[in-house]
Amino acid sequence: MNDVDNVALRPVAEDDLPVLNGMLGSAEVRAPFQWFGWSDPGRMARGFAENGLLGPENSMLMVVSGAETLGFVSWRKIDVAGTYFWNMGIMLLPAARGRGVGTRAQQLLVRYLFAHTPVVRIEADTDKDNIAEQRALEKAGFTQEGLMRSVVFRDGQWRDAYLYGIVRDDLK
Asked: The CATH number of the domain where 99 resides is what?
């Protein structure tokens, strides 16, 4: 794997669809914190055909280092009281984890979203036991804002998650 300084984001290409489907359809890749059971295997292809997975309500970019695919980042619109903010997420291939790739990709996505959309806030959430993602979010500039109790149903039980946020002024 290349140095973390070479990590970049780019739009999803049609050639990425098998990789995305493989990641999203694999309990091993998604374990232990993102496996929620089987989902629609045609969702990515339909989204790509509709808008290249860059839509007004939710979007996705590939995380890469040169020609190597490392995973993806995504974001979705959260409407609140006549305005909106973004909720973002990340999924990396197992070989890309634990090397700073997640921190760098999330920093790049935050800067992209603040540069190209008028939002003042971006949030992310993660399982309360996902220490690696908590550290990555904090290194990316996010602040832990609270515990959301029983917010995610995974592996037969309700689980708690931490909410993280970053606002434009945090980048100054």
From this structure: 3.40.630.30
Statement: residue 89 has pLDDT above 90: yes
Residues 6+ apart with CB under 8 A from 1: 65, 68, 70, 95, 96, 99, 101
Distance in angstroms (rounded) separating the CA atoms of residues 54 and 12:
9
pLDDT at 78: 97
The number of domains in the chain is: 1
* pLDDT, tens only, 127-143: 999 999 999 999 999 99
User: Reading across the β-sheet that carries 121-127, which strands appear in turn?
Assistant: 7-11, 58-65, 68-80, 83-92, 121-127, 157-167, 143-154
Q: Specify the pLDDT at position 172.
A: 75
The angle formed by the CA atoms of residues 149, 155 and 160, to the nearest 5 degrees, is 15
> What domain range is 102 assigned to?
4-171
pLDDT exceeds cutoff 90 at 114: yes
